[in-house]
From TrEMBL:
<dbReference type="InterPro" id="IPR027417">
    <property type="entry name" value="P-loop_NTPase"/>
</dbReference>
<dbReference type="GO" id="GO:0008976">
    <property type="term" value="F:polyphosphate kinase activity"/>
</dbReference>
<comment type="similarity">
    <text>Belongs to the polyphosphate kinase 2 (PPK2) family. Class I subfamily.</text>
</comment>
<protein>
    <submittedName>
        <fullName>Polyphosphate--nucleotide phosphotransferase</fullName>
    </submittedName>
</protein>
<dbReference type="InterPro" id="IPR022300">
    <property type="entry name" value="PPK2-rel_1"/>
</dbReference>
<dbReference type="InterPro" id="IPR022488">
    <property type="entry name" value="PPK2-related"/>
</dbReference>
<dbReference type="InterPro" id="IPR016898">
    <property type="entry name" value="Polyphosphate_phosphotransfera"/>
</dbReference>
<dbReference type="GO" id="GO:0006797">
    <property type="term" value="P:polyphosphate metabolic process"/>
</dbReference>
<feature type="domain" description="Polyphosphate kinase-2-related">
    <location>
        <begin position="30"/>
        <end position="266"/>
    </location>
</feature>
<dbReference type="Pfam" id="PF03976">
    <property type="entry name" value="PPK2"/>
</dbReference>
<keyword id="KW-0808">Transferase</keyword>
<keyword id="KW-0418">Kinase</keyword>
Amino acid sequence: MDSFLKNFIVKDTESFSLQNFDTSFTAGYDKDTARQLLDEYKKKLALLQDSFYAAGSHSLLIIFQAMDAAGKDGAIKHVMSGVNPQGCQVFSFKQPGPEDLLHDFLWRHYKALPERGRIGIHNRSHYENVLICKVHPELVLKENLPGHSTPGSLDHAFWKERYKSINHFEKHLSENGTVILKFFLHLSKDEQKKRFLRRIDDRKKNWKFSEADIHERAYWDKYMEAYNDAIRHTSTSDAPWFVIPADHKWFTRIAVINVIVSTLQQLKLAYPSLPEAEAVRLKKYQEALMNES
């Protein structure tokens, strides 16, 4: 992992503040260099994914969280474009449906976890339950939780328990072979405005824009506070948060793929080797095929 990326890992949760992270940071790279690096990392990722899939001892869960227009979809598209689709799955979580609301808030996310050998990408995730639900606490009331019939009942203790549930959930996954990477794509409010305007000006991008984008933008400060609290309470050694600068999409992509590649390299996974008896049988099969008339 490039040395500058270590500054993006949230380790000191006590003093953590999003205000200390520069959304426009590029580590001195330019756009052309970044594109070349992205191509190189894609090749590395493809090779690593192949051995990861063959080994079948771990799964990799990659979580993307961000404000609207921060580039989650683009990061997933460009970073993962070189991997084998058989070993990768992407889930984009929308509002929970009627069946989801009959279960605990982690239920639908647990169902979407990747199997061993596979890479799972969650575009938004279980963190929505401490982000949008914290900004709009009336959404929690749809869960019909005992003792919580009004937004006012969702006090500090309630959110603290949710953070604890998330930490326990992720620790359990980690202990059972799931490697977890959590990326917050940190976009500035000014850059979001520029991207919204581009979506409006470009007819080909009009479909990306919705009235809800403007509605949620009005809650920007509350969202920043919710993200700050969530990251501070849930960045752990088992499942660290990476705060990735997102004002320049090209830099966001090389930062994300760099972390993923470095993480897979650290696993030091190899292709499975056959037991001696099976290797002997394989040799016989080879001879039989070679001797076919």
